[in-house]
Design brief:
Elements: E1 28-30, E2 66-69, E3 83-87, E4 90-98, H1 107-110, E5 146-151, E6 163-166, E7 172-175, H2 177-191, E8 197-203, H3 210-220, E9 225-231, H4 240-250, H5 272-282, E10 287-293, H6 297-305, H7 313-326, E11 331-336, E12 353-354, E13 357-358, H8 359-367, E14 375-376
Parallel strand pairs: 4-5, 4-8, 8-9, 9-10, 10-11, 11-14
Antiparallel strand pairs: 1-2, 2-3, 3-5, 6-7, 12-13
Length: 384
């Protein structure tokens, strides 16, 4: 795996509640909630190291990115300013990309000395050569000519929080992810009002809310064709106590979309599989797809920390898909063998092949509305 960020050690909730479309305004363009119980608090020292690629800034050697400084009510977890990025190319095709990079939901995981999540955008907007889907010089890249909105991650709440939480002993965190994310989403609609194809993608923590943001994009741009590509979170199951306790810390119930499908749902019921289901019922034309490694070591570690038996991680992945599809939502999946975590920001994006199907070809067909089928590793799925 290239572009590995060894600094981040990711903690993610199993089953999360979502945010709604609400954004701050006046962007500038340049070139106390219930505490988790003792049984659910996870020490930062126990957190598994994440090998999610470092996507501190989207990168390209050919096209230019614009940095957009958001207004003051958009911020990172430490209260510092929030910046996101726009690449203008084909105005009819847009990629809305959500960065990954950890999470926090307790005094230990959110403390200043903890390295479980990113606290700031962490760069000055400088760009270098890209990899994976951000390599715009690769002739095989299906996103090479797409306009893009790149949403950095610095709030510890998988882009869906809306609360300032005091965890005690001076540990105060601005879980501002949904405000930051929906601000960038509104800017996408402003800059590319005639877009006919929108892909909402993310990796690791950024892949968690992709169905939600696709549903919110539909509210802004109802005539656009929407596709979701979630990379690296398919095993996280519906655990009601985690849904409600971590959701309370992040303030996600302050930001539930006012969709008919959300009426009467409780925090305990709002799960990761539920994001696919509710967004799919809100807009039945959304195409949902995801990529996972069958024994992704990062997801396996998260499952163990949450008390979920994950020796056979691929079974959790398959079960989630079955539950989503049992609700009437089609979810296309590409399940590769091995223990790697995420592929979109890696050059493996162009070479990965499962059962004769090249992943880059599968994604190309996905976003061009060509027929695709589920791709699933065979045998024990452990050997990459």
């Amino acid at each position: 795996m290239t572009r590995v960020n060894k600094r981040l050690r990711t903690l993610m909730a199993f089953g999360v509640v979502c945010g709604v479309l609400a954004a701050c305004s006046n962007d500038t363009t340049t070139s106390s909630t219930p505490a988790l119980s003792d049984t659910t608090v996870i020490s930062a020292d126990a957190a598994p190291a994440s090998d999610a690629p470092s996507t501190d800034a989207p990168t390209t050697g050919a096209s230019k990115w614009e940095s957009i400084t958001a207004p003051a009510d958009c911020m990172c977890s430490d209260g510092s300013g929030f910046t996101y990025f726009v690449r203008k190319a084909d105005p009819n095709k847009v990629l809305f990309f959500l960065e990954g990079g950890g999470a926090c939901f307790s005094k230990d995981t959110c403390a200043p000395g903890s390295d479980t999540f990113k606290r700031t955008v962490g760069h000055d907007g400088g760009m270098t050569d890209g990899e994976g889907i951000f390599d715009f010089t690769n002739p095989k890249n299906p996103f090479a000519n797409y306009s893009m909105v790149f949403v950095p991650y610095c709030t510890g709440d998988v882009h869906i929080g809306n609360a300032t939480t005091d965890y005690g002993d001076g540990v105060v965190v601005h879980h501002n992810g949904y405000i930051n994310g929906t601000t960038a989403l509104a800017k996408m609609a402003e800059l590319f009002p005639d877009a006919t194809q929108i892909v909402v993608a993310g990796e690791s923590a950024g892949s968690v809310p992709t169905p939600l943001y696709a549903g919110l994009a539909h509210d802004l741009m109802p005539t656009a064709k929407l596709t979701v590509l979630a990379d690296g979170s398919g095993a996280y199951p519906d655990v009601p106590v985690m849904n409600s306790t971590i959701g309370a810390q992040w303030g996600t119930m302050n930001a539930v979309p006012k969709w008919p499908t959300t009426v009467g749902l409780t925090p305990e019921q709002w799960s990761l599989p539920g994001l696919f289901v509710q967004a799919g019922k809100h807009d039945p034309t959304i195409t949902f797809a995801r990529h996972d490694y069958a024994f992704d070591h990062t997801q396996t570690a998260f499952a163990a920390l949450a008390g979920v038996a994950a020796e056979n991680l691929v079974q959790l992945i398959d079960t989630n898909e079955q539950q989503i599809e049992a609700s009437g939502i089609q979810l296309y999946s590409y399940i590769a063998p091995g223990e790697t975590h995420t592929v979109l920001h890696s050059n493996t994006f162009y070479t990965e092949t499962v059962n004769g199907t090249l992943f880059v070809d599968w994604v190309t067909d996905l976003i061009t509305a060509q027929p695709i089928a589920d791709v699933h590793c065979s045998g024990d799925c452990k050997a990459a």
